[in-house]
Amino acid sequence: MTMTTYAVSHLEKLEAEAIFVLREVAAQFHRSALLFSGGKDSIVLSHLSKKAFQPAPIPYPFLHIDTGHNFPETIVFRDDLIKHLGVHLIVGSVQASIDAGRVIEEKGRNASRNYLQTTTLLDTIRELNLDAAIGGGRRDEEKARAKERFFSHRNEFGQWDPKNQRPELWDLYNGRRHHGEHFRVFPLSNWTELDIWQYILQENIPIPCIYFAHRRRCILRNGVLLAYSEFLTLNDADKETLAERLVRCRTVGDMTCTGLVESTASTVEDIIREVAASRSSERVSRADDLRSDSAMEDRKREGYF
Amino acid sequence: MSDQTPPEMDLLRFTTAGSVDDGKSTLIGRLMYDTKTIFQDQLDSLQRLAVQRGETLNLALLTDGLRAEREQGITIDVAYRYFSTPHRKFIIADTPGHIQYTRNMVTGASTANLAIILIDARNGVIEQTHRHIFIASLLGIPHFIICINKMDLVEFREDVYERIKDDLKGFVAKLSIPDITFIPISALLGDNVVNPSVNMPWYKGPALLYTLENINITSDENLVDCRFPVQYVIRPRNDQYHDYRGYAGKISGGIFKPGDKVKILPSNLSSEITSIESPSGPVTEAFPPMSVVMQLQDDIDISRGDMIVREHNQPNVSQDIDLMICWMSSTPLQPMQTYILRHTTKETKAMVRNLYYKLDINTLHRIENVPDLGLNEIGRISVRTAQPLFYDSYRRNRATGSIILIDERTNETVGAGMIRD
Questions:
Q1: Which CATH class is domain B227-310?
Q2: CATH 3.40.50.620 in chain A, residue ranges
Q3: Which of A34, A61, A83, B136 is the most exposed place for a label (fewest CB within 10 A)?
Q4: Residue A17: closest CA among chain B residues belongs to which residue?
């Protein structure tokens, strides 16, 4: 006689939890959108969204906050995926926010549009009258994110108050809100970077080619490898470090602050091996997080992703 | 960590409780450090902070995520931490040891399979130890590990360990805890955390990490009482799936199979399951905690908040509910007040009818004739709901036996309730 065991693997549990949360968004909110960056986490979210509602279409549009400083490969990938999924894409443009005088572009060598995204994001949420924005944030990414709820409340100014969050018990998610307030929802809260890659492998999910090792011209600044592009302001020290290297992206974001890692990984299996053996967290390559010890918390309080 | 995780790797959620200086954060730091989960850059950032403060490296800082926490050296809110071994992935709900303790511990405990309770070997069992064990047992955590920490400061003496074990016996017997393990450790030095201690040869049991890796959690789910709260109705409304109706949700109990005769609550209509779809396609069985979509034989009006069950095993159906409640708001709970009650996927209004007593959670004594229930207090109440709930006792099923109360004016979650037998 064979014994049936009713065991569920860790990836199945994480998948079931994320799908439950996505369906809860569809049930509790009227106007939601999925924040799509073209990075691996938002790609996994779009895959889970498809699974959560099939055979019906995904019941929310995708929203890309576009700094204009993209890896071109990401945009090509984004447009293909949107077409494949049949979802509506809304683009919130940081350039438009700059042109309208809503934000002022940073100046100098370390200038980045990463910080300007918050204004564009909050303006777009207001314009679209969104009551929920689904994001790919994970608690293992960063210490401020470790404090996030699945359903994270934002006041009418879009701000997060980490010291006064609603308690979140069992799987009873409270998305009740007043007019003008919204929620950020993080279905991947309990996933780690390694879980994401194992799931991408298991589900055979396509990802942008920049996640795999490729030759690219880079500069080395403050210990972070940055892709050379017209969006960077180089000084003489930067120019000296300019060289072609074999690299890949560990995260994908704005080109001016997304660091690259030297790697020979050409398959998802290679990446899993690399991540499992890695002695540094994925945020180490993000120049935006290295600005200060509480850089992420400060940005999140103001309404960042 | 292995290169390729075997597919049978599972997931265990645990919560940690201890008084302020019991070394809880040090233990978590130790587990993460020794399983190589702490990354070099995170360690560097801790080192920078230590130098800046003129202190030695403090692993506790790893779990304090907010600036205010690091500045004040306290933990404000539940923090979630992750580590894994080749056998298991672990999620730690790390809860603070002082202000708003009960509220945060209840939150962390609500989803945990296991509780680690820390006791300082020098101080032995104190009032807070009772409180931590009681809350964890009230929240129905099936497995307990009592870590008697700082054994290095009592010369690793067996008699100290045995005396603390004895002191707890009487209290533990009053609660229903299915599985309890005692381990003498030194979180600071690593004794019996990941590696067996050479300083305590008298302790014959396994180290903490081995215990965490090997505790059997598959029998924790209720596989007997079939409960499927409908979360969302999938209706494509296109030509290809013109008449498709799929009922999406998470299995809260029991094992469902295509062909099962089922009853739908509250309509009491009967039907039969024609198919069950998991995220990866059709399945022949569905059980907790799977998220699935069911299709039924008959075209019945079913919406969010309804429950699909088996004909011969039905939950309680009532508008009068008897609860243990933990209060989480600075505005006290008072009899005759109304709240929004959320239970499974259902939301309804509820009025507090009676406040029978509140508990002194250190002694477990009942205090009767109280006017209200304040922040972090636990009491027994009864509520009358606008619509009937389909429920089991919390002891029988944590998913169908739990509720939250929401303040209608502020929309805050103010109470966590466990339905009594």
A1: mainly beta
A2: 10-194+294-302
A3: A83
A4: B291
